[in-house]
Structures are given as structure tokens and as C-alpha cells.
UniProtKB/TrEMBL annotation:
Source organism superkingdom: Bacteria
MF terms (GO), sorted A to Z: (S)-2-haloacid dehalogenase activity
PANTHER family reported in the protein's UniProt record: HALOACID DEHALOGENASE, TYPE II (AFU_ORTHOLOGUE AFUA_2G07750)-RELATED, HYDROLASE, HALOACID DELAHOGENASE-RELATED
Function, as annotated: Catalyzes the hydrolytic dehalogenation of small (S)-2-haloalkanoic acids to yield the corresponding (R)-2-hydroxyalkanoic acids.
The protein's Enzyme Commission number: 3.8.1.2
Protein name as it appears in the record: (S)-2-haloacid dehalogenase
Similarity-based family: Belongs to the HAD-like hydrolase superfamily. S-2-haloalkanoic acid dehalogenase family.
InterPro entries assigned to the protein according to its UniProt record, in alphabetical order: 2-HAD, HAD-like_sf, HAD-SF_hydro_IA, HAD_sf, PGP-like_dom2, S-2-haloacid_dehalogenase
Length: 227
């Protein structure tokens, strides 16, 4: 069977820090615009933490709820005092985050090489479809696979088993592509191949003794190696 690449969405294809500009505008009203990058980072970190905790508790909810609750926590932690209107607006921005600049060309190169690509996310299918459509890259993917189909979150092994079930693929033919080390480790633990998109050159990989098959700086480098 031909190789299949399953792309994580948030942080790998889509820039979760694409909300910083909007945060800067909202925080400028409080003369705290310099806080925007920190707010974005904490929001993203808490979003993932909430998905991990809910996974351990067996208390699954739609990923958008993790995002909304993480926004509420970050607002309280940094004492930014956003109004409910502000929060709803920021959630709307999160649903329209941009793709990374190199994503479209890299996906085109993979398609030209005959590589099959799917999107694979903690987000609901509806949310992921919307993100990819507005970023103008939905047509590069053969399918969207969401954890919502089995009500588990990455890096639960059942999630990666579900991916292979949906793709009807063997572990050796299936590659996870992710900028999230926990996702890469989860996939490798489940027997899949995995490539780590190390978007920050200073980012260390978790020292678990489970390493990615491939480490690249961005999706252009991935296409160069796998196309």
C-alpha cells in the first residue's frame, strides 16, 4: 500500500498563534498589548492540558469546549478582564486561524508526488473542515479524521488505532505529521511512523526514549524529504 500522511491540524498546518494580532488590539484598550504573545501561549497550553485531563478522566467534550474553558482560565490568570463579547469574538478568530505560509505549496508538492494526505485532529470534523476551507487547503486532503468519532483525545492509543481503521492502512504505511511532541510520541508508541515538525529551533523533544522517524523545520522540508 502507498504511504499515507496524517497531518495534525492545530500547530502543524494551522498557526494557533494567528490570534496574537487580535489579542494585541483588544489588549491595547488596557495598555497591555505587549501581553498578547503570552496570552496566546498560555491559552494554547491550557487548551491541551484540558484535553489531557479530560482524557484521563474519561470526560470527553468537543475540543472547542476545551478551547473556550482555556480562554476563560487565561483571562482570569492574566487578569485581562475580557467581556463576554470579547471572548466570543476571540473564539470566532480561533475558528478562522491562518495556515502556516509554506503549507499550501508543500501540500501541492506532496500531491504531485502521488502522496495521499489526510487531516487528523482533536478538533471536530466540522471545525477542522471550516479551518481548512478558510485557509484554502481543504482540497489537498483526501479526508478529515477527527477524534470526535470515538470520543477520545490524542495521545490515547485508541485514537491512532482509529486512524488506521478509517484509512484501512497498516502501521508501516501510516505516518503522523505533527509539531506536537506528545502527538509524535503517541503515534510512535502505537506503532506508526511519525515526523516531528520542529517549528522552533530551540524546542527540545521529550526525553522518553521514543524518537520521531524524521525531524524537519517546516512543511517545505517535510515535502523535500518525503515527496
Amino acid at each position: 500500500m502507498a504511504m499515507i500522511l496524517a497531518f495534525d491540524v492545530y500547530g502543524t498546518l494551522i498557526d494557533t498563534h494567528g490570534v496574537v494580532a487580535e489579542l494585541e488590539q483588544r489588549l491595547a484598550e488596557q495598555d497591555r498589548s505587549e501581553l498578547a504573545p503570552e496570552f496566546s501561549r498560555r491559552w494554547r497550553d491550557k487548551q491541551l492540558e484540558y484535553s489531557f485531563r479530560r482524557g484521563l478522566m474519561g470526560a470527553y467534550v468537543d475540543f472547542s469546549r476545551c478551547t473556550r474553558e482555556a480562554l476563560e482560565f487565561t483571562d482570569r490568570a492574566l487578569q485581562t478582564r475580557f467581556s463576554e463579547t470579547d471572548k466570543e469574538h476571540l473564539m470566532g478568530i480561533y475558528a478562522r486561524l491562518p495556515a502556516f505560509p509554506e503549507a499550501s505549496a508543500a501540500l501541492d508538492r506532496l500531491a504531485e508526488a502521488g502522496v495521499s494526505c489526510v487531516a487528523f485532529s482533536n478538533g471536530s470534523r466540522e471545525a477542522v473542515e471550516g479551518l481548512l476551507e478558510q485557509a484554502a487547503i481543504r482540497d489537498r486532503f483526501d479526508d478529515v479524521v477527527s477524534v470526535d468519532e470515538i470520543k477520545r483525545f490524542k495521545p490515547d492509543p485508541a485514537v491512532y488505532a482509529h486512524l488506521r481503521y478509517r484509512l484501512e492502512s497498516e502501521p508501516g504505511d501510516t505516518w503522523l505529521i505533527s509539531s506536537n511532541a506528545f502527538d509524535v510520541i503517541g503515534a510512535r508508541h502505537a506503532g506508526l511512523h511519525a515526523a516531528w515538525v520542529r517549528r522552533s529551533p530551540d524546542a527540545p523533544f521529550d526525553p522518553w526514549g521514543i524518537d520521531p522517524d524524521l525531524t524537519v523545520a517546516d512543511l517545505d522540508a517535510l515535502a523535500e524529504r518525503l515527496a
